[in-house]
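Hey team,

Sharing the Methylenetetrahydrofolate reductase run so nobody has to redo it. Sequence (292 residues) first:
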Amino acid sequence: MRIKDVYEKSPFGISFEIFPPKTEAGDVALLEGLQRLTARSPDFISCTYGAGGSTQDRTLELCEMIQRDFQIPATAHFTCVGSTIEQLNNWLDAADLRGIQNFMALRGDAPAGSDSFEAVSGGLKYANELVELIRSRFPDVGIGVAGYPEKHPEASTMEFDLDNLVRKVDAGADAIFTQLFYHNENFFRFRDELERRSVSIPVVAGIMPITEFARIKRITAMCGAIIPDGLAGQLEAVQDDAEAQRAIGVDYAIKQCQQLVDEGVRGIHFYVLNKSEACERILDAVQIPRSV
Ligand SMILES: NC(=O)C1=CN([C@@H]2O[C@H](COP(=O)(O)OP(=O)(O)OC[C@H]3O[C@@H](n4cnc5c(N)ncnc54)[C@H](O)[C@@H]3O)[C@@H](O)[C@H]2O)C=CC1
Ligand SMILES: Nc1nc(=O)c2c([nH]1)NC[C@@H]1CN(c3ccc(C(=O)N[C@@H](CCC(=O)O)C(=O)O)cc3)CN21
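Structure output:
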């Protein structure tokens, strides 16, 4: 099943994002989480691709394992970071040999410790170039790209960022997966803007339930998502109570997801990030037009 088919065949797509653990304990926890998540029959599970080389093969191993052991389609994240075009092509060949048919084509983050992205000599600079590269070598694979309802932090204006997203769509993307966001109105405005620009591929909402205030502050600082003041205040008030934070985060996500469903969003991509419990609780509570 390729990304394109998912949103054509199903009234509502559900997908999960995980990352390759760095420790053995992390591997064990992820496997346990995957057993529970795959029982929800997601349309696909995506696996992130770390900067600097170490987890790039792990991404492919995990994707292959998900397809082999759980019979769920996998999507491999793929970035331009630190690779020449030749290295990117070699990785694509390796992915093809392992039977991976879906990719999330990203530019990638600047390596830790540096604030701006720099393409390597003989490498690629923007995600639209990566979409082109994948399409030229494997015309039929599924390709997802990232979209930013609250603007990419490096983009000077929303208009410019939208122009760049349209470049990725024109290069052959099958669906847009948004950066995580907590203000639905920003998502709806973004969706309307894309419609105005005649973008017709699905715009899938990227949702990350808050399970821990400190962690979400770290993540939103990295990716630019805005935490609503009211929600931040509620979380702040229970700083020393992990269970209360989880309850607030899950409750918020349930309401957020239900409104997205009610407003006709094509799918939700959950940033599970190896913590499955909150997403399971959300899936239990939200009325989704499909059987899960
Ligand atoms: N699930 C994930 O792993 C996600 C990762 N990300 C990360 O977000 C970062 C950005 O990645 P992408 O969105 O794929 O990058 P991108 O290449 O689409 O955009 C990066 C920046 O460059 C600008 N830009 C894009 N194309 C351009 C062009 N042709 N000419 C001039 N400027 C251009 C954009 O407006 C944006 O500010 C990466 O760090 C990516 O890994 C973002 C969302 C989800
Ligand atoms: N700019 C950007 N880069 C990304 O990689 C990215 C986004 N945005 N937006 C959505 C998701 C969030 N991503 C994440 C977020 C957190 C972890 C994470 O929790 N990692 C480990 C290790 C972190 C560390 O090494 O410090 C963790 O256990 O916290 C992984 C991927 C990947 N995606």
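The chain has a mean pLDDT of 95.

Ping me if you want the raw files.
A.
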